[in-house]
């Protein structure tokens, strides 16, 4: 399994989907799987039951996906690394790529977005800076590779990820823990 981790808005979902296409692998977005499980949007779960309830479902879902996902590309949610058990499972069960993005770049992309509950505050840029300070060390601790995202296009980022994985021999048969499959008809989920 190839897992993408990083700040909300760094491009995990967008890059992950294109990467899966390129590798002819199944694409999984854990946030979409969580929404299928809970039967409502993540935003509604946050509003009704709070962040900790979401984190518990997220940990259980990522445990299942990393155990059974084989050679899939997995795009995680930005807070996936908050639980130590999940950090360990992601790292031990596959290759982990950190898509590094700075708070100011993310803010430019997401300032009109209303789907990410953690950013629905009076000062989203300050919130991004504080999330970054807390999480950047956790992303680095979990990742096998770090990719700088600021300026490159999605297509370039996909090339960069593939190159890193090839250099490390991580795309060799068996290295991802399962066979790859034709991509388009096998997407587990789509963006909202
Ligand atoms: N490299 C990039 N260049 C320009 N826009 C991007 C890039 N990566 C992602 N985006 C845009 O940023 C937004 C957030 O991307 P998304 O893949 O949903 O991030 P994540 O899943 O990490 O939260 C989307 O509108 C997406 O189109
Ligand atoms: O950063 C976070 O804690 C979260 C990021 C979101 O995913 P993206 O990183 O895809 O935005 C989603 O899992 C949830 O809203 C919480
Ligand atoms: Mg996403």
UniProtKB/TrEMBL annotation:
Its EC number is 2.7.1.71. The keyword Repeat does not apply. Its cofactor is Mg(2+). One of its GO terms (cellular component) is cytosol. It catalyses: shikimate + ATP = 3-phosphoshikimate + ADP + H(+). It is found in: Cytoplasm. Gene3D superfamilies: P-loop containing nucleotide triphosphate hydrolases. Its main location: cytoplasm. It comes from the Bacteria. PANTHER family: SHIKIMATE KINASE, SHIKIMATE KINASE 1, CHLOROPLASTIC. This is Shikimate kinase. It comes from Simplicispira suum.
